[in-house]
Amino acid sequence: MFKGFYTASSAMIAQQRRTDLLTNNLANANTPGFKADQASLRAFPDMLLQRMNNHSFSKENGDSATPRETLGSINTGVYMQENMPNFLQGDLRETKQPTDFAILDGTLPADEKTGRKGTLFFTVQGEDGKPRYTRDGKFTLDGQGFLTTNQGNYVLDENGAKIQLQSANFQVGNDGMITENNQQVARVGLAYAQDPMALEKEGNGYYHMTNNQALPSALTANGVSFQVHQGFIEGSNVDMSQTMTELLTTYRSFEANQKILQAYDRSMDRAVNEVGRLR
């Protein structure tokens, strides 16, 4: 009886966490460069059930043993194992703002071990001075002419240095080279993650490596091609219709497990207050 409580309640917790994940995706459907999260649900390890018979038999050394009959396995619940970002390319939206950049993925080799394709990122400086990575190219110029994100983090060039400009009258080539007054100022720092699952998600659309190491430059990565578009931003890759369908399915699953839990509660109530009543 109590196993039923645990199984239904664990399913409700898992579906509640999946609901939080899906609603967060919906809330960021219009966030530039946002990558939707995907949930992975997994069952707890199965338990083997055996029944001990009433009779026993004697062993050769004189000890007695009780034979056991295997009944089968039983599952004890489910949990959300992890949430993984989906790094598929989002749609490019034209803004005509010179400080808006967007990465258009070209050729991205697949990882030999996982089979997943790599991902490109803009490189920015975190508050701790270490590099952070983002697909949100909605940048701006601060009071000193440095190219920054909307959160105030400096955008870095290919050498890891800050990018300072004299005005917003500059051009960015498809290779990320910034030209101002017919002179090459810097090249936007683009990083390449061969295995995107090695990244950890932070707030404001930032990522960092799990071992806090820096990603290699996309400019020197073998077999990697891309284009940088000025005056564009990359939209989120949230599929609204699919997310709404998954959210409805998750809600129905939560509701079904809630009804199962209520049924167990009524059974326990009868077992305690009616079956066990002394007359």
From TrEMBL:
UniProt keywords, alphabetically: Bacterial flagellum, Cell projection, Cilium, Flagellum
Ranges of residues in domain Flagellar hook protein FlgE/F/G-like D1: 118-179
Domain Flagellar basal-body/hook protein C-terminal residue range list: 230-273
GO biological process: bacterial-type flagellum-dependent swarming motility
Entry keyword annotation includes Metal-binding: no
UniProt key word Amino-acid biosynthesis: no
Any single Gene Ontology cellular-component annotation: bacterial-type flagellum basal body
Residue ranges constituting the Flagellar basal body rod protein N-terminal domain according to the UniProt record: 5-35
Compartments where found: Bacterial flagellum basal body
Alphabetical list of InterPro entries matching this protein: Flag_bb_rod_N, Flagellar_basal_body_rod_CS, Flagellar_FlgE/F/G, Flg_bb/hook_C_dom, FlgE/F/G-like, LlgE_F_G-like_D1
Superkingdom field: Bacteria
Record-stated family: Belongs to the flagella basal body rod proteins family.
Protein name, per record: Flagellar biosynthesis protein FlgC
